[in-house]
Amino acid sequence: MQIKPRQHLLDIWQAIGRHSFEQGQWAWGEWGGKSSVADAERLLCLLYPATEIPEFRLDDPDSTQPDVHQALRRGGGRLDLPANLVRAASDFMRTHTGEDKRPTFAGGYYFGSADKEQELSEEQRRLDVVDSFSMSITLCLATLGFLKVYETRTRRTDIQETIAELRAATGNRLTAAMVGLLRSFTVNAFDTDSDQGRNLTELLGQGRLSQRQVLTMYQSRFRALRAAIVESLSLGIDVQEGLKDENQYFECGWAWSLVKDAPEVETDEPIGPQPQGVARAVPYLYFTVVALDGIQDLFSERTLTLGLLNAEQQKLAEALRLRWELTQQYWSGIARFDPDRWPLEDIPWRTTGQELESEYFSLSVAAILVHDLMRRRATDDDLARTVTVMERLAERGRITSRMTRDDPKVFELHNAGVKLPLQGGEQLGAPMTWSLHDFSAQLLKRTIQLRTLSRNLASHDRLLSLAEDAFGHMWRRRIREGEGTGLWDNVHAAYPGAEIVTRHVPVSWNITERVAEVMVQVHEMYRQPPVRSAELTELAGALLSEAAHLLGNEQMEAAPSDDGRHGMQLRNIEVKLRRARDLLDQRPGTAYALALDVLGQLDALTRAREAAVQGR
User: Fold this and answer.
1) Are 358 and 413 in contact, with CB atoms under 8 Å apart?
2) String of DSSP letters for 101-161
3) Is 431 helix (H, G, I), strand (E, B) or coil?
């Protein structure tokens, strides 16, 4: 299925308009306010495209395009729509702020209980979660960018007051989210003979290398990174003494929430008291990927251009950027540990901390590798091997292959999802879990990111084919009737023969937001110049050389008495030839087509002249 970002995003916005607006006002509905993650994802479905794609902007009513406003007509008139979005964002900030004025980042109903006989306590549902920290960073940056333009376009006194309050609340939440990510980052050192150490040895050695060989390679590969972590990290983390011992392994990344005993981060911003953490100091692949996605927005070109961060936030952003870079280097090194056979290529990935095995974790590691490839200059070999991994994951995840009878992959990856045990949460009640059922959306997102990165023609075409297959799969999973029509997620629509467990929540804002985000990425992908083919450039250059020579020859011939039509034809050919030369380096295919057209016209002039000579 061809991805048409403009049309598909308009369809999504129209569905959100039907679902989330009543009589021109934003309506959270029954499930609004029960999870800061879900509420942030719902707002981002509108605010992220509206601030990232100029053609979808809503902050300047005079610039809102007719089809964009038509898609969101239930949100009010052209002047009322941005004001209603400001009120919705203000409601979000108030709802997810505690009585002590501290921004809250509760997982809410996204948390699950591993014990079917025991419900989670209210205290557990109110626990902060890394997903919310990351989503809040993206939401706050989008909101601040939206307000920066909209406040200069409206003269309504009530809205100006709301804007001032919202800007202050958004700034506080942004700072609190950054502090939360700093206090959720962890480095876990462990002995090679521990259970976790043996798991990592098996993962890296893949049954071909001994423990001593793996340790020796590990020491060599990560010596510089280990030293950088010891020397650089001080803000929000207590670096363990074990990290300095080269005979121990280590992992770095993000836990699922604030790490237990994590020191407070000093800041002058009024973010309220910093709560005690409960999470064990163990990195999770999923939450590490989520954190990396959010942190990346802090130093995007848009954030820097608009000056969305104050001095204190810039300091926190630099601390997060350091962790962002170190984490990518670590997991990219783990994924490509053995040059002959990457551990990433040994699917499915087995986590060392939670001892879980799934294609989802292979996708998570691939996502971090994609981040790293985007950060540095990737080789064609790295790209080609990563593309192969993505294709295999799509096949194993039943996205590009058929479902087998009683297929467990549908249940494990798309319906119930992978259940992550949230270590440390059991201190407050029932054992806690976090469900991962967005495998398809994540695969689509990483595929688009890879294609945006790739400048290799063969990999480019493979990734486009995979992206279109994954998107077609996702588009089939839209809800067809009832609440949330046109949104996600209806797994049964893609797997009609599978036994599906119905979720109690009518709309998955997690998956809906991922698809909206992908539309933004596809828009950026199409804005890039096409991949340049060296062979086509050479061939187009040869055609242009022949065309220029023949044009010069034609200009030497006497002009026929045709009221100047011959001269006009030559001038038209000259213009096309000049255009083809200008496009040769960036768009050789277009230059090739123009050169062929010019050669055809020149040949027609030659044949007409020869026919005229023969007719005399």
Assistant:
1) yes
2) S-B--B-GGGEEES-TT-PPPHHHHTSB-HHHHHHHHHHHHHHHHHHHHHTTT---HHHHH
3) coil
Residue 616 CA to residue 601 CA, distance in Å, equals 23
Task: Determine the Cα–Cα distance for residues 138 and 41; give it in Å rounded to an integer.
Answer: 10
Q: Which has more confidence, 380 or 356?
A: 356
Cα 35 to chain centroid distance, Å, stands at 21
CA distances from 312 to 80, 188, 206, 264 (A): 34, 28, 45, 15
Which residues are 113's β-sheet partners?
A: 432
The residues with which 488 forms a beta bridge, in sequence order, are: 478
3-class DSSP assignment, residue 29 = coil
From 61, 126, 73, 131, select the one nearest 100 (Cα to Cα): 126
Beta strands in 147-210 (DSSP E): 185-191
**Per-position b or e across 231-255, b if 16+ CB within 10 A of its CB:** eebebbbeebeebeeeebbbbbbbb
Strand partners, 188: 251
User: Is the distance from CB of 395 to CB of 401 less than 8 angstroms?
Assistant: yes
Under 8 Å between Cβ of 464 and 444? no
What's the N-to-C CA distance of the chain in angstroms?
Answer: 59
- Bridge partners of 434, per DSSP, are 111, 420
If you ran DSSP here, which 8-state letter would residue 244 be given?
A: G
What is the DSSP annotation of 298-364? HTSHHHHHHT---HHHHHHHHHHHHHHHHHHHHHHHHHTSSSSS-GGGSSSEE-SSS--EEHHHHHH
Alpha-carbon distance of 406 to 399, in angstroms, equals: 16
Position 338 pLDDT exceeds 70: yes
Amino acid at 612: A
Q: What's this model's pTM, rounded to 2 decimal places? A: 0.90
Alpha-carbon distances of 361 from 234, 288, 417, 513, rounded to whole Å: 29, 11, 12, 21
User: What is d(CA 336, CA 374) in angstroms, rounded to the nearest whole number?
Assistant: 16
590: exposed, middle or buried (C-beta count within 10 Å: 0-12, 13-18, 19+)?
Answer: middle
Q: Are 146 and 47 in contact (CB under 8 A)?
A: yes
C-alpha of 64 from chain center: 25
| pLDDT for 523 beyond 80 | yes
How far apart (Å, rounded) are the C-alpha atoms in residues 329 and 227? 13
Q: Contact, 510 vs 31, CB < 8 A?
A: no
The number of residues making up the chain comes to 616
Q: Please enumerate in sequence order all residues whose Cβ is within 8 A of that of 243, keeping only pairs 6 or more positions apart, or say none.
A: 187, 189, 226, 229, 230, 250
How far is 279 from 64, CA to CA, in rounded Å? 45
Tokens of 266: 């000093």
Q: Which two tokens stand for residue 505?
A: 């929540």
Which residues lie closer than 8 Å to 520 by C-beta, 6 or more apart?
5, 48, 49, 52, 53
The whole-number pLDDT of residue 125 equals: 96
Gap between the Cα atoms of 32 and 505, Å rounded = 11
Residue matched to tokens 């809503």: 58
Average pLDDT for the chain: 91
Cα–Cα distance measured from residue 190 to residue 612, given in angstroms and rounded to the nearest whole number: 90
Place of tokens 């009120």: 87
What average pLDDT score do residues 526-539 get? 86
Give the model's confidence band at 616: pLDDT under 50 very low, under 70 low, under 90 confident, else very high.
Answer: low
d(CA 24, CA 77): 8
